[in-house]
Amino acid sequence: MRPPGNAHFSLEVAFELRQGVHVLFGPSGAGKSTIVAAIAGLLRPDAGRIAFGEEVWFDAQRSIWLPANARKVSLVFQSLALFPHMSALANVEYGLPRTLSRVERRERAMAMLQRMQVAHLAPRRPATFSGGEAQRVALARAFAREPSLLLLDESFSAMDRKLRSELGAELRRYVEERSIPAILITHHRMEAHALGESILLVEGGRILGQGALSELLPLGAREEGG
Amino acid sequence: MVFPPTVLGYYVLVALGRTSFVGRSYEALTGSSIVFSEAGAVVAALLGALPMVVMSARAALENVDPLLLQAARTLGAGAFRTFFTVRLPLATSGIAAGIMLGYARALGDFGVTLMVAGNIPGETQTASLAIYDAIQANREESASGMIVMLSAVAVALLYGTQKLARSHRVR
Is A79 part of any domain? Predict the structure, then answer.
């Protein structure tokens, strides 16, 4: 496949995920974002298969390709990618089904903003948000869509410890409520342990291991104390 | 934009002339020729300015952050909705700046207008052509008013495009 930059990149990955927060861990350039982009439908691999339950999203041999907008996936980007020309409310409404009435979309969006404790930002635009507020609105937008799979591309990396802890707890609560899997990309051990339940170790485009965090990515004594 | 104005004007003259399909159709509908008319002057100025507007609009549309377009797709928007709700609104100030620059270009057009519409006083003589005539005839005083007006409009348009460019960056 060709990730951004148009260079050929080879991935050899095979994994299955159940409900819960799974950390995709590896150094920069390991292929973590490429994997997530392929799952989200933003990148079309040259070979392989991506299926969610019984639904096949991509199958090179059978020429199946479901575009990004048809997959029930929410992706939270590292830069958050909030629409600068829309209010917080409009940002959160954007991903809601068009089959809902305008009133229903508004109510659902407001409910999610309230859950993330940023209802007061509803009429305001992202340029006026603090970093933490923007993070909360981005998560609200991702959650409101009620995805079947949640993807977070280093979304927590820029947060301070307190905010990471609060939003991490909110993420786990949401994932548990909806019984869905979530994939969280990080290259920080502490973040992986704080937010994840299991881990996929990625390096050089390959999965080196999948399993419990404590076994595959133990924290050093210094990290546990810090 | 690479064509000299008089060459572009010649091609437009051929395309809209009385023996062309467009020219004959226009004359059949309106009873008069489009070339050497006010309508012809408008078409000439428009065609001369169009490349500038198109280039600015294209740059504005292409410079929209691709991550925002990806975000729209992951939120369920198809290509049509992504374009009209994300790409186009975010390119609006750039497109508007292009239209303003195009208007300034059209206002000052000389070569294309002269070829297609001529320089008929009271009919197809634009401000630029009138200034040229006045200077050629040593009537600088009669040109000065139009020079001041066109200069003021140009400065105002430049200010407007700069303001739009700044508002686009702040976003």
Answer: no
pTM: 0.81
The residues, any chain, with a CB within 8 Å of residue B77's CB and separated by 6 or more, are A69, A94, B85, B86
What does the pLDDT look like over A156-189, one tens digit per residue?
877 788 888 888 899 999 999 999 999 999 878 8
Mutate to test the interface with B, among A6, A36, A42 (most CBs of B within 10 A): A42
> Which residues in chain A are contacts of B70 at CB distance < 8 A?
42, 68, 75, 77, 81
Count other C-beta atoms under 10 Å from residue A91's C-beta. Answer: 29
Cα B16 → chain centroid: 18
Look up the domain containing A111 and give its range: 84-146
pLDDT digits (tens, 9 = 90+) for B74-110: 999 999 999 999 999 999 988 998 898 888 888 877 7
What pairs with residue A209 in β-bridges?
A201
CB A147 within 8 A of CB A95: no
Overall number of domains in chain A: 2
List the CATH number of the domain containing B111.
1.10.3720.10
Instruction: Give the closest of A40, A84, A97 to B74, CB-based.
Output: A40
